Amino acid sequence: MSVLSNRRLFGTNGIRGVTNKDLTVEMATDIGSAIGTYFNHGTLIVGYDARISSPMLAKAVIAGLTATGCNVLFPGMAPTPTLQYAVKKHKTDGAVIITASHNPPEYNGIKVVWNDGIEISREQEIAIEDIFFDKKILYAEWNRIGTLQMLTGIIDEYVEAIKKHVDVSEIIRKRYHVVVDAANSVAALTAPKLLRDMGCKVTTINANIDGTFPGRLPEPRPENLANLALTVRAVGADLGVAFDGDADRSIFVDEKGEIHWGDKTFALVEKHFLIKNPGEKIVSPISSSTLVKDIADDYGGEIVWTKVGSVTVSQTMKKLKAKLGGEENGGIFYGPHQAVRDGAMATALILGIMAETNASLSTLLGQLPKYHIEKSSVECPSELKDKALKKLVEQVKGLNVSTIDGVKIWFDDKSSILMRPSGTEPIYRLYAEAKTKERASNLVQEYSLKLKRLISGLKS
Ligand code: MG
After folding, report:
1. Superfamily for 157-366?
2. CA 219 – ligand 1 centroid, Å
3. Span from the CA of 245 to the centroid of ligand 1 (angstroms)
4. Which residues are catalytic?
C-alpha cells in the first residue's frame, strides 16, 4: 500500500500509507500544494479522523494548500461523512480529509472531495498526480497566500440534517436502547448525540477518542465485534452498531447479539425504500449478495451493479440520479441526504424501519431471503492476473456472466460465484453464494480447481 509507486499517489480510497514512512510531513505538504494548484485559489475544508498522526498531517496539508492560494476552513476532528456534508452545506469547492478509514493505527491517508461532497474521480486524481510528479505546483504571490479560518458547528448541522430523513417522533416513542461501538474514533462525536436526540438510551463502548485504537481494530468485521455483541445482550439493548475508523460504514448487531454483515442490513433498507419509492435504481458493487437483487426484483426496483469501491458507487449514483446504494462491508449511500456512505445516516434509517414496523431487527432480517456464503482464495502471481482473467472469461462464455469486476457467474438455482484478483495480494478471491451450504462449498471447490488449472497452464 505504499504511495509513490508508478507515478501514482491515489489508491481505491485516496492516498494511504504508514505515517512517517510512506506518508511523511514533507510529502503531505507537497500533496497539499498539488491539490491546491488543482483547486486554483479555491476554498476547501480540511478535517481529520482520530489517528495520532492526523493533526500533524492536516497542518502539513493546510500549509501546502494555503501556499498555493487556497483558503482553508478548518473544523478539526470529524467523521468523513460529516466533512462531506459540510462541503455542500458551506458551498466550498471541496475538502481534504486526513484519514485511513479502517486501516490499522500506524496508517494514515489523504482523501480529496469535490464540491458535491463525493471523492474526486480517477481523471481528477491523475491531474493532481501530474502536478505532483511533474513539479507543476504554482505557489501564490506573498499577498495571495490563502487564509485559514476555524469552522465550528458542523457536527450539529450534520446531525440535524440526518434527522430530517427519518420519522424522529416515531423513533422517540419507542425509547430504544442502542449500544454504540465507536472504534475509539470519530463516530463518538456524532452517533451518541444523534441517538440521544432521537430519544434513545445510549450505552457506548470504545467511545473514548484514542488514536492507538486500544478497543479493537477500526475495521468493523464480525471477528472484531464480539464485545459489542456481548454488551448488547448484557444490557438487553434493542440494537448494536459498530462504526469503522472514519464512521462512513456501520455494521449492526440485533437484540439477540447476532452480528449481521452489511448486505443484509442494506437489503432491509432497500426493501423499505422501494416500498415507498418503487421503480428506483439501486446501485451496488458486483461483490454484494444476490439478496440485494432479489429485493429489487420483489419490490419493483432496478439493480445497477458496479465495480467494487465506494467512489464508483457514489459516481454511478450521481450519473444515474439514483437515490440508494449499498455495499456488503456496511456502506449505505442514502442519496436524499448525500450520495456517499454514511454510518450515522444508516443507523437512523435502521431505527426508522424498526419504529415504523414495530419489529425487532432480528425479525426484520429474518424475513429476508437466505443465502449461504463460502469464501476461498487461489494463488496467482500478480503478473498473471490479467491473463488469467482473459482465459477465465473465455472459459465461461455462454453462462450468465458479468465481467464488471473479475468474473461473476449466476446459475439457475440462484447460486453464484465471483472470482476477483486481489488489488494488494498475489491471489484471486472466490465468493460463492447459494441456497444451501453444500452447493456454496461445491461451487467454491469446483471453481478453485478450475482457476488453479488455468493459472498453472499460464505458467508453463
Ligand atoms: Mg471508512
Report:
1. Alpha-D-Glucose-1,6-Bisphosphate, subunit A, domain 3 (3.40.120.10)
2. 8
3. 6
4. 101
Bridge partners of residue 434, in order along the sequence? 372
Closest to 434 measured CA to CA, from 445, 424, 443, 423: 443
Fold of 5-152: Alpha-D-Glucose-1,6-Bisphosphate; Chain A, domain 3 (3.40.120)
CATH topology agreement for domains 5-152 and 372-459: no
Q: How far is the CA of 457 from the centre of ligand 1 (A)?
A: 39
Cell 458486483, residue located: 286
pLDDT reported for residue 1: 44
Q: What's residue 3's pLDDT?
A: 58
Place of cell 440485533: 254
What value does the mean pLDDT take over residues 437-447? Answer: 97
Residue bearing cell 441456497: 435
Q: Are strands 107-113 and 201-205 parallel, antiparallel or unpaired?
A: unpaired
pLDDT at site 5: 65
Phi, psi of 332, deg, nearest 5: -120, 130
CA distance linking residue 380 with residue 318, whole number of Å = 35
The verdict on domain 372-459 having CATH code 3.90.226.10 is: no
Of 283-297, 314-328, 416-430, which range is least confident? 416-430
Measure 448 CA to ligand 1 centroid, in angstroms.
Answer: 31
What's the 331 CA to ligand 1 centre distance in angstroms?
8
- Name the residue ranges covered by the structural domains of the chain: 5-152, 157-366, 372-459
Indicate if the pLDDT at residue 255 is higher than 70.
yes
